[in-house]
Each structure stands twice: as structure tokens, then as C-alpha cells.
Amino acid sequence: MKSILIANRGEIAVRVIRAAKDLGLRTIAIYSELDRDAVHTAMADEAWNVGPAPAAESYLKVERILEVAREAGADAVHPGYGFLAENADFARSVIDAGLVWIGPPPEAITMMGDKIESRIAAEAANVRGVPGTLEPLTSADQVEAFAAEHGFPVAIKAAAGGGGRGLKVVHDVAGLGAAFESAGREAEAWFGNAAVYVERYLENARHIEAQVMFDSHGNGVFLGERDCSLQRRHQKLLEECPAPNFTAENRTTLGDLALALGHAAGYRSAGTVEFLFSDGEFFFLEMNTRIQVEHTITEEVFGIDLVVEQIRIAMGEPLSITTTPEPIGNAMEFRINAEDPSRDFMPNPGTLVTYKEPGGAGVRVDSGVVAGSTISQYYDNMIAKLIITGPNRASVVARAKRALTEYDIGGVDTTIPAHLQILEDERFLAGDISTRLVEDGMDFSELERSTAPTLPEDEEQTERAMTVEVGGRRFTVKYWAQVMTAPGSGKRVAPRRTAPKLSKQTSSGGSEGALEAPMQGTIVKIHKKAGESVEAGEAVCVLEAMKMENEIKAPSSGEIVDLRVQVGDTVSPGAILMVIK
User: Fold this and answer.
1) pLDDT of the residue at 481
2) Which residues fall within 8 angstroms of residue 425, CB to CB, at 6 or more apart?
3) Residue 55 to residues 34, 59, 307, 510, 543: CA-CA distances in angstroms?
4) Non-local CB neighbours of 136 within 8 Å, separated by 6+ positions
């Protein structure tokens, strides 16, 4: 193997490029038209355009990706995570094209990638799962029947996905229909498969996952656990390794269950087995057949490069370790996302006007952005991952506070204020956590929104670079252009201004009854028609941004006298959706 094509974007593409270069391999990046100037395209040895901004027309275009692999002379394909990473058909296509697939066998992806099939396989391996259905649902009535037997709350989940995408928790019969439809839409958007299933929802459980690796020589190794309980919108926000208040007996049981499932699936490569942990018992959730977003903290605690191991396994080499090494210290990963915690973590796409990362001992940042990068509505809203390590949990918390305050991000709201608040929470500090702590036990509504620099005023000459394409391949050309400066200073400036504080009551509504879009996105559902009455706080439409559905609620009671959007419309922040009087 001499060259690898990375079929992904952003920070995970950067992460794989670095690992491949550590092994002396040539790297080939792909990019959409929106990502032409992205960091990963400049870091790779060469980069190729695969289509327009929407993922369905670029990062999910199997034929185009394989065409690029052939034209660029790639020997292997690494899928990263998301997009096609858990698509068995893509894996087979890569193998059929004569390329090395850096991931598990397609058969294992099929078995574990489909959450219903994985539940069946887990039961066969004596790994108990959360009670749930073993066939895709065809109507909300089936959810209601399941809830009648097992009780509320229940979780409707995407059969082909994970990571909290396409997951809706339902607490009563009234919300079943809307949740069933929404879960199916998100599942289709993220995974190209609208199939969903239902399972009992454990409200006060911890989310514990096991990192495992298997090679083609029959070796399997358990690399400890990660606690991923701190979540919002059923998606992880902060992860840590080792898990707090977790006994050696717990750890041994977890490792045995995860290895048993991996061996039963004929697994090869790095993988993650996820469990809910409640009252001392483990309940299987799913197996992620890819590198995990939070793999970084396992690397820091166990001193192993998981991406390099993935590549070595794909090359037919045995694991570099075959027994669980002793952990060294503690680590936490903080997801720095473009979201506004004060508005229920609403996605906040935009351009990074300023971007400066923290540093120092025990600080690692995995990112794929620079100042000027755009966090687009078309992709995930992650800006970077801040990984903090230390000799113990208390030292990690102290170091994390310092690093988070060193961050300088302007232009979008971020999760940084929420992370700082979490680090002051007594329950978190005591390790008394669950999957509901952030959403049910913490109030972020009074957090100040992020600040953003104003635009400079005058210009001066500086060296710049631009990207051009020849035959679909990316090249960088240097040139001289104007930069913005303050009058008479000759220096570039970026003074700050504080963004206005928006109250919870007015966060999605404008003046004089005008309901405004809180962010850029696409209208995917409208609950009411023009002329109908609505109550204050009632959901009136659904806006999709970054493949997440956001219920937009009426700011006041009244009648919809002017409905200005329809399903499929793309709207900008501040656009009037409807007028209620």
C-alpha cells in the first residue's frame, strides 16, 4: 500500500491524513465545491472535486469517489466516520474495484450497521440489549402498541445509523405520529435509509462504550471504556476516559461483552460497542463499525494511534498489542460545535471570522478549520474537538477550564460556554452523571452568546493563495491582493462587539407578529395553514439545518395571516416564515 484516498471531510479527514503521512503514505483528499478551500484539501498530497455542496451529490456519490480513486492511483480507501463509513455496499464496491478497504468486512458492517440486525446478533452472542422491536416499523401504530406493552418513554431510532441521528424520544401517545415521521426523515437524510425501530428508553442510565480492535490473525483487544453520558439532542457533547465511578469488575464485564460480540461478528479493524449502564447492568445499544469521533481520548489514555492501527490491520499486519494496556491518567473530549446553548443548542452555521486554538501541556485539538472557514448547514456543525489529558480527573477539569477560556472563536455561537458551566456542576464533578443530566438537570438559557469581531475598514497588499482545478484536480496558486486595515494604522484589526442577548421568548420570533428563521436551513414540514389559529409556544414548522430537525414555535397566540414558506424552501437567518396576528 502506497496511497490512501480519504472519503470524508473536516477534522476526521485531517486526522486520517496525518496518520497516513506518519506511515509514509501518499494522501488523496476529496471535496465538494463548498469545501474547495478547506483545510483537509490543502493538507493532502492531492485533492479532487467530487461534486456540489449537498452531501448526496458529493461525499455520498460512490461512483464519483471510485472514479477519483482510479484516476488518482489510490491503493486504499479510508471512510472516516459518517457519510459512507458504515455503508456495506460502499465497502464492497471499494473491494470489488481492487482497492484496500480500511474498515471491517462488509458482512460485519451489514450485521452491525443495521441496528435491528445487530440486536439479533447480540442476543445470539448472549449480549443482552434494551427491549425493543426486531423488525423495521411501518407505522406509528406499531410504536403505540410497543409502548402499551413496555410503557413510556420509548425511543424511535434509525435502523441504519447511530450517533443520535434519527433518534426521537416519545413520552406520550400525543407525540408518537410526529416523532415517527421526524425520525424517518432524519434517518433518510443522514444514512439514505428511512427505516426505524423502537426500544424502551432508559431515562437515568449512563452511556458507556467499549473500544475494541480485531485483526485478521484472530487477535482481539479491549482498549477500555469511555463515558459518553453528557449529551444534548441525544448526541454526545463531552466524553471521558476512564469512566468515573466505574469499578474494575464493571470494566472486566464490559470488555468481555464487547469482545464476544466482535468475535461473533467476524469483526476486523477498530470498532466501538455501545451500552446503556443502569443499576449495575449493561444493555447493548449498537456497534459502530468505524473509527469513533471520541477515539482521541482512548489514544491519549492508552498511548496508541487507533487510525494507524486501522491502516496496519487493513494491510494484513497483526495488532501491535494483544492485551489491554494499563491506562495512564485521564482524558476528556469537548466537542466544540457551532451551536447556541442558550437556545437549546440550536445549530448556528456561519463563517469563522476569528479562530485561535488553545495550547500547552495536556492540550490536543483535532480540527479542520481556520479563520475564514465556513460551518455550513450542509454538514455536521462540529468546529473542532478539544482533548485534555492529565494525571487524574481533577487535573483534567482544571486544565480544561484554562484551555476553553483560551479559545477565540468569532462569527458563530459555540458550545464553549456550556462546557465551562458543566465543569462547575457539582454532580459532574462527583461523577454523578446520566444521559439526561445536561438536558433535564442544567439550565443554559442565561449564558451569554458568543462575541464576533467587526469587519476591518481599509486595505493593504498581502500575499494570498487561491485554488484552481484542472481536470477535476485541485491546485493552489499564490497571488497578491488587498487586506482590510484600520485607517492610517497599516495594521489589521478586529475589534470585538458583543452579540445581542436573545431571550427564550423571542428567540424564534420577530416583531409585530412576524416569525423569523433563527438560522439558515430548509423547511421540511409545516404544521399549520394560512388562516389557522395557533397558541404561543405551539410548533408551527420544522426547519432542518446541519441535518438536524428544529421545531420552530409560535412566539404568540393568534391567526396565521401570512404564510410565506412552503416545504422545500431554503431560508436565511431572519427570513420571515409567517406572520401571526
Assistant:
1) 60
2) 437, 442
3) 10, 5, 24, 32, 18
4) 116, 159, 195, 196, 197
Judged by DSSP in three states, 97 sits in coil
CB-count burial class (<10 Å; 0-12, 13-18, 19+) for 455: exposed
Q: Answer for the pair 176, 170: CB distance below 8 angstroms, yes or no.
A: yes
Give the distance, in angstroms, between the CA of residue 33 and the centroid of all CA atoms in the same chain. 21
Positions of E strands within 326-435:
330-337, 339-340, 346-347, 350-351, 354-356, 363-367, 374-375, 382-390, 408-410
32 close to 53: Cβ distance less than 8 angstroms: yes
Please list the rounded mean pLDDT of every run of 10 residues in the chain (581 residues).
97 98 98 96 97 94 98 98 95 98 96 83 90 86 92 88 77 90 84 85 91 97 98 93 97 97 96 95 93 98 98 97 95 97 91 96 97 92 97 98 97 96 98 94 89 44 69 73 48 38 39 83 90 91 81 91 91 89 92
Question: Which pLDDT score is estimated for 451?
Answer: 54
Vertex 149: Cα angle to 145 and 150 (nearest 5): 115
| Integer CA distances (angstroms), 260 to 270, 380, 521, in order | 15, 33, 43
Q: How far apart are CA 153 and CA 10, in angstroms?
A: 36
Full set of structural domains in the chain with CATH: 3-102 (3.40.50.20), 131-200 (3.30.1490.20), 208-447 (3.30.470.20), 458-493 (no CATH), 514-580 (2.40.50.100)
Helix then strand then coil, % of the chain, to nearest 5:
25, 35, 40
> What contacts 16, CB < 8 A, 6 or more positions away?
4, 6, 8, 27, 78, 80, 307
* pLDDT at res. 220: 98
* H or E, element range at 181: helix 176-191
How confident is the model at residue 482, as a pLDDT? 52
Would you give the distance in Å from CA 261 to the centre of its chain? 25
